[in-house]
Amino acid sequence: MDVIIINGGRALAGTVATSGAKNAALPLLFSSLLAEGEHIYRNVPRLKDIDSTELLLRHLNCKIQRTGNQFKVSVNRPDSLVAPYDIVRKMRASILCLGPLLARYGKAKVSLPGGCAIGSRPINLHIEPLRQLGATIDIENGYVIAQASKLVGDKIVFEKVTVGGTENIMMAATLARGITVLENAAMEPEIVDLAHCLKKMGARIEGEGSSVISIKGVDELHPCEHRVIPDRIEAGTLLISGAITGGDVRVENCVPADIQALITKMRESGFDLETGQDWVRVKACDEWAAVDIDTAPHPGFPTDLQAQFMALMTQARGTSVITEQIFENRFMHVQELLRMGANITQKSQVAIVHGNRGELSGAQVMATDLRASACLVLAGLAATGETVVNRIYHLDRGYDHLEKKLQQLGARIERHAEGSI
Length: 421
Ligand code: EPZ
Prior knowledge:
Layout: E1 2-7, E2 13-17, H1 22-31, E3 37-42, H2 48-59, E4 63-67, E5 70-75, E6 82-83, H3 85-88, H4 98-105, E7 107-111, H5 124-132, E8 136-140, E9 143-147, E10 155-157, H6 163-173, E11 179-183, H7 189-200, E12 204-206, E13 212-216, E14 225-227, H8 232-244, E15 248-252, H9 260-269, E16 273-275, E17 279-282, E18 293-294, H10 306-313, E19 318-323, H11 332-339, E20 343-347, E21 350-355, E22 364-366, H12 370-382, E23 386-390, H13 393-398, H14 402-408, E24 412-417
Parallel strand pairs: 2-15, 3-14, 6-7, 10-11, 18-19, 22-23
Antiparallel strand pairs: 1-23, 1-24, 3-5, 4-5, 7-9, 8-9, 11-13, 12-13, 15-17, 16-17, 19-21, 20-21
Helix pairs in contact: 1-2, 1-7, 4-6, 5-6, 6-7, 8-10, 8-12, 10-12, 11-12
Bound molecules: ligand EPZ.
């Protein structure tokens, strides 16, 4: 297993561009199952989760051609409508093939994704709405077994906001009979991007980006070409890499509006941020104030930036109260930050961060999940001395060569195969 070694204490400077959004690319690739033929996706990031998605699509009889960030999917009728455990366990988002397969072919057998480090990650808000649209769904031997001769539109009210649930049901509803209305739908930019792609395929969708989305089913969809939106979580992570080192970093190929919650909080903390059409710049800052955050569905503060923001708050003046409202176990980076000298008290879903600039010292740390690993890299950039981040396969699931992007900004960061040092 590779490790990342960081020698901290250097202010980052320069310009860096984000890659395509992981959390847009995954549902987009699965939406191709709704229409046989050749789909072309551009700006697809090179990530382990994308590799896992390719594995599953190939298993479902798709032909895949990847050239750089272009991903060509030729969808053919699957020989088997089964998404097996050994593929799904690698990536929970594989559950997003359920809606498309069920809607297009009338049945699907998908392994239950199971939980992960940050929480139990149930899928009841995927299953119940599909039942409401007329599907028969059984859970047997760790698999979701779904059948529906034809889904029929209905009004679905999500009891809580779910990104994946909204995506799965929106995709399924494109081929249902009649109109489906989703209430309390997720409003993330990735939902909007998926709806834009589905409409290019011939779907009839309105309201994407709001909490009420209506879909008028059609008989069939056709393939299309689509460019994946920039990754807002990577953009926020790169912005924080400049901020936490007291540097001056401009992040390009991003959508400032998609990270408005982070921009607002960083400005509240005292950072001078400039924004343009497709870029955000953080200017050098010697001291910043602690601010509180509560994670929430978009447009609230993204849970996927909570760990990275916590790293920033360990260097702030004062005390920050960080409340994780989305996932039940998304503070595993706290223990590792404490090992680097941070002063954090955690009580259930609340972490109280007593900031102190310059208190972090380099250490051997362990990544536990995707965004926790990004947090530890950011902490290493600010720490005095050498930090070794272990188990960075977590990082590779969701960041496209992050260490190369940080090197471009002057960071002393290297990737090494474990045991080679
Ligand atoms: C998506 O996960 C993202 N993943 C996550 O990003 C992100 O953290 C999350 O949305 C919230 O924004 C992808 O898009 C691939 P949810 P998802 O359904 O869809 C509960 C990252 O780091 N829930 O919006 O799985 C759930 O337990 C990853 O890139 C149910 O109770 O998240 C959670 O508490 C991590 N029943 C809350 O809803 C369900 O059926 C939000 O989950 C589904 C979800």
